[in-house]
Amino acid sequence: MFGSTFLVLWMFVLSIDQTDASTATGFGTEWGYTQKDGPNSKDPNWPELCHSGKHQSPINIDPSSVVKNESFSSLVFTGYNHPGPVTITNNGHSVTATGFDKWGSGSLTPYITGGGLYGKYNLINFHLHWGEDNTLGSEHQLNFVPFPLEAHFVHQRADLNATQSLLVPDGLAVVAVWFILDNRNPAPLKQLDDAYESIDPFNTTVTLNVTLSDMIPANTAAFYRYSGSLTTPGCNEALVWSIMNHTMTVANYQLKQLRQHNTELNHKLKHNYRNLQELNGRVVLRNG
């Protein structure tokens, strides 16, 4: 029991440090989203917590049952409105952007505050989830209706290190943004087009400048909030989720490009979303 718990912990610590944790821990990088290796399979790369945890993500958002919270302020995104260099990587499970810790100190380093969060959370990566067609893709759903794309901006609490952030339920704060299909407005992800086109092969990288605010709704006061988990192995229940109520836009050609990315086994990564999880008594709050 201790050995398996330590393995999950160490896997998560390495992922926070922006390395490929799977190989280093023995879970392997060959987990995926199919019936054979996906979250509902018996693949050991999805540990027991993924199947038995009571605070798992993603979830469905039912607007009729959310509780309005008047005490939350707007989320404040600092360092999101100026360009900075990132490394875009195809890790076989998504396309991720890292390197924010190298942007400098103070207002140059992207972080979030406000919105009922405990202090400051530094951005450590963002990545995307999509589906095999435009009717699927997002991990979270609204009234059981999915969106074609969902972006996750993953932040770590500034007063904690990678290990400590796993041991408290608010060690990480993820901002999720839903994208709707609009072929007339590819602008939110336009800056990533060249990068995503050039990293189709597994484990390839490219560096470019991005302006994060282009991918975030202008209204940062309206969001859903709940306590949950990572949606990938090892499904650690250490996250505060903020799901923006206002959507951004994505074009069909951008979705098609994402579906061309290869996994480690040289299969097309046509979808990379986890199935919905039970609320198990959790309350979803809404601000704005």
Automatic annotation (TrEMBL):
Residues 29-288 form the Alpha-carbonic anhydrase domain. It catalyses: hydrogencarbonate + H(+) = CO2 + H2O. InterPro entries: CA_dom, CA_dom_sf, Carbonic_anhydrase_a-class, Carbonic_anhydrase_a-class_CS. Reversible hydration of carbon dioxide. It comes from the Eukaryota. Its EC number is 4.2.1.1. Keywords: Lyase, Metal-binding, Signal, Zinc. It is an enzyme of class 4 (lyase). Its cofactor is Zn(2+). One of its GO terms (molecular function) is zinc ion binding. It comes from Plectus sambesii. One of its GO terms (cellular component) is cytoplasm. This is Carbonic anhydrase. The lineage of its organism: Eukaryota, Metazoa, Ecdysozoa, Nematoda, Chromadorea. Belongs to the alpha-carbonic anhydrase family. The keyword S-adenosyl-L-methionine does not apply. It holds the Pfam family Carb_anhydrase.
